[in-house]
Amino acid sequence: MQPRDLSTHSVYRAGRGIEEVAREIGLDPDELVKLSSNENPLGPSPAAAEAIQQHATHSHTYPKAAHTDLTDAIARQWDVSPSQVWLANGGDGALDYLARAFLEPGDGVLVPDPGFAYYSMSARYHHGTVGTYQLNKADGFEQTATTVLESYNGERVVYITSPHNPTGRELPREELLTLADRTDDSTLILVDEAYAEFASTDSAIDLLGERDDIAVLRTFSKAYGLAGVRLGYLLAPPTWADAYERVTTPFAASELACRAGLAALEDDAHLDNTVELVRWAREYMHEQLQAHTWPSGGNFVLAAVDDAETVARDCRERGVIVRDCTSFGLSDCIRISCGTREETKRAVDVINDIV
Length: 355
Prior knowledge:
The chain has about 350 residues and is of the alpha/beta class.
């Protein structure tokens, strides 16, 4: 007995954990600076951590009320209907719901290269086919409607990441509208705004009331510091009212995740402090790194090096973990997440010494 043929499916390679690296190189985890996974350098909102503790004794119950409360809170935040909020187990869970709702076997999707591997993985899980559009280093990884349309062939879903991971580049609002206007009526533009809190470009969420060919993905993992509880959501056009209930898993987000999300939404100070720190760290890296960097709207900076694998290894041996971008097809780039002021300065010193 064997599973179905999975030979065309890739494996998602997440950044390595700090404990794993510490064991490998024989250091105490507290001696390491991990700047490889775009996590929040300030940790979770204290209010969210307290909510998890308070509600831990209720973790034996299904999250019906908490799920509804969080959905309503997100709807109020963005001035949309609760039926437009597709709550999920992380942003990747929302991508799966989208694929379930949209893809018939053989339908095509168009994804960025380089880009988030799970776009294509989710589409293939649901028997879709995958095409790519290139973000080219020679063009500074600039995102434009033309860049996407050159590879567009009537795909059912086009994935846009703004700010883009791993490059940090944003898609301007006018380019998004041009793209939506020039694709087929049956094509959905999915705008992944996982890093939008750190960006300068306006969110696409306000467009949902005007058109039914754009949806927006959001997450609590980055700016809210809740990557470990796995909480994300899709914001859909109002015409999709009943689709979510037909494709979601039972209780799509846990009780503790929903409670943490509710608390995090109310902690404006933590969000403001996070955004302020990230913008400082980005600017510091742009100014101080002795390597070429690209403009970034995310909580990370992409830097050019001679050999990413070697630089990442040498950094790791000196206690600083950065992302070797070879898995993105960029063997001469590293991605450095924004850390605290002390962590960011230490990383820059180590990288400069190596390069």
